[in-house]
Amino acid sequence: MRIIxxxxxxxxxxxxxxxxxxxxxxxxxxxxxxxxxxxxxxxxYLLNAIVGQQVSIASAAAIWKRLEDANLVTERAIQxxxxxxxxxxxxxxxxxxxxxxxxxxxxxxxxxxxDAPEDVIxxxxxxxxxxxxxxxxxxxxxxxxxxxxxxxxxxxxxxxxVLFDLPERPKEKxxxxxxxxxxxxxxxxxxxxxxxxxxIKNREGIR
Length: 207
Hints:
Blueprint: H1 7-20, H2 22-31, H3 43-51, H4 57-69, H5 75-80, H6 83-88, H7 93-104, H8 109-112, H9 117-125, H10 132-142, H11 154-163, H12 172-179, H13 186-204
Helix pairs in contact: 1-2, 2-13, 3-7, 9-10, 11-13
């Protein structure tokens, strides 16, 4: 299992992609150096992801600050909190349920670092409130796996449509198969497509 730990790892993956297809080379030339995008791992990061579901970035940030201020960002704290505590910081009834499910899941986050990506994803999606996208992003950025992709991501789909001149955005299942060609650097391919999405969004006014 290759783990991305530094900018040099990302650059290595980008160089590999550029050698495979001239379209990657062109996209990377437009995007410039790709970001590392490593994030912390553990309970708090996944709780933060749950908080951010289906709300604006600003709203998610405000709720998360209230959770931090109330010291409600650990498994024990969520387990001990009553509904009024969680409601006071802005969690909906559904997100209270998801937060408690995560706190009760008993995930060994340290051991998860040594698991294969498919096992990480399987462990996480078993928790109510965590879907494939969140699990894949966690494996990609919190654990640094080099060969993970998130085919359900709309920005990745749109970028691939433009870069590879597809008639429409690839559906998740087909996109997952398409991404197999970018192994063992699928996480870098995702970084490249997100960067390319920003380029085409600015160029073509995509929303």
